[in-house]
Amino acid sequence: MANQTFPGGISPGHFKDTKDKPIESLELPKKVYIPMEQHIGAPCTPTVEVGDYVKTGQKIGESDKFVSAPVHASISGEVVDIVQYNHPLGNTSQTVVIESDGQDEPDYQDEEQTVNLDSFSAEEIKNVVKEAGIVGLGGATFPTHVKISPPEDKPIDTVLINGAECEPFLTSDHRLMVEQAEKIIFGLRAIMKAVNCDRGIIAIEDNKPDAVEAMNSLVTDDDSLEVMTFETKYPQGAEKQLIKAALDREVPSGGLPMDVGCVVNNTGTALAVADALRTNKPILERVVTISGPGIEQSGNFMVRLGTLASDLIEQLGGMGDQTRKIIMGGPMMGISQPNADFPVIKGTSGVLLLTDQEVQIFEERPCINCGRCVDSCPISLLPNLLGTFMEHERPDKAEDFNALDCIECGCCTYICPARRPLVHYIRVAKGEIMAKRQNK
């Protein structure tokens, strides 16, 4: 089955110049800034104090809330500060600062062990995933142990591994599938066991034939696993769009994939599950695509969490004189940063540097009712109306038109000939709607 897709969406261009660049390791950072908020849910509380010595992989933050994920040290050394530090998602967050001793002494089994999944129960897999602090590494950062613990009345029949990676410039998932396919398949099988499911799908866009080949080579003798290829279109990697394209199921408004019998995990998440089961290694590093016309040396790099983007950029030759914007993530859903002094966190899939040529400022004009935003919306919303409601400060009307269903993919803003900041309007609407509900 090939070239499946979903209604709506856009084709903003791929710019995957790093797709053939193997994953490289950079120098061990001399100092890391590790936020206690790296996941959806309750933030962690530090379990260490200034002056403590920590090992690589040691737990340094946790919460007693179910929807949360512990945080671990990414290097060994001394805790030199616990401060409020700039967070790449905005505002500040309580942050543990560790100065490296240069030894990188691990607090986990440093050598991979041969592991038989039959030796783990479903509950044991969930517990290992929780203790490893694994979250959705595609950017959403939802705690994985929560995602693979659906209630009994919502049985799961399909686990999807999301290898679409539709965001322009980003190629970290692509390289993981090419270089670490066996681990991803092992992680998929572990997730399937955790949710008591006997069907797994690896979903890949058709612009990644080498990834398709690598995955297919490992599933040909297993009837429970399947590689599906999809039309290259944005946002093919969004959960609801992937489920629609792969299974022709529609997640209901306000619902979750589990409502239609699915669990969706990123390729990096599946690999992290494999590492946790084989070595007890927690999330302490991830692959980051560093790209864009504003960087001297682009590529895919294994980066320790808490490493400042400014340190990464310096190691790669620095940024060009014409660099005007730094984005954590991709150009469609990434978050623009005021400077490069932000730490890499669990949800950092990329660091993108753009120049004057790409960063253009347009004057917003009135809506011309062309309907292009409506045609492109993958959720079948009416972005034009939602924007108009918020221009007139009517979040109540935006709520009536399902503003909370917006996945903030940016298709409407990208396609709008009047250059209306529609995603911004809808984000404001969603914030005001949620604030009203909380007050009630």
Record the SSE blueprint.
Blueprint: E1 23-25, E2 31-35, E3 45-46, E4 53-54, E5 59-62, E6 71-72, E7 77-86, E8 92-100, H1 122-131, H2 144-147, E9 158-163, H3 172-179, H4 181-194, E10 200-205, H5 209-219, E11 225-230, H6 239-247, E12 262-266, H7 267-279, E13 285-291, E14 299-304, H8 309-315, E15 323-328, E16 335-337, E17 350-355, H9 372-376, H10 383-391, H11 395-400, H12 411-415, H13 422-439
Parallel strand pairs: 1-14, 9-10, 9-12, 10-11, 13-17
Antiparallel strand pairs: 2-8, 3-5, 4-7, 5-6, 7-8, 13-14, 15-16, 15-17
Walk me through this protein's architecture.
The protein is an alpha/beta fold and about 450 residues long. It has two domains: about 1-25 and about 110-360, 3-Layer(aba) Sandwich (Rossmann fold), CATH 3.40.50; about 370-440, no CATH class. The chain has 13 helices and 17 strands. It has helices at about 120-130, 145, 170-180, 180-195, 210-220, 240-245, 265-280, 310-315, 370-375, 385-390, 395-400, 410-415, 420-440; strands at about 25, 30-35, 45, 55, 60, 70, 75-85, 90-100, 160-165, 200-205, 225-230, 260-265, 285-290, 300-305, 325-330, 335, 350-355.
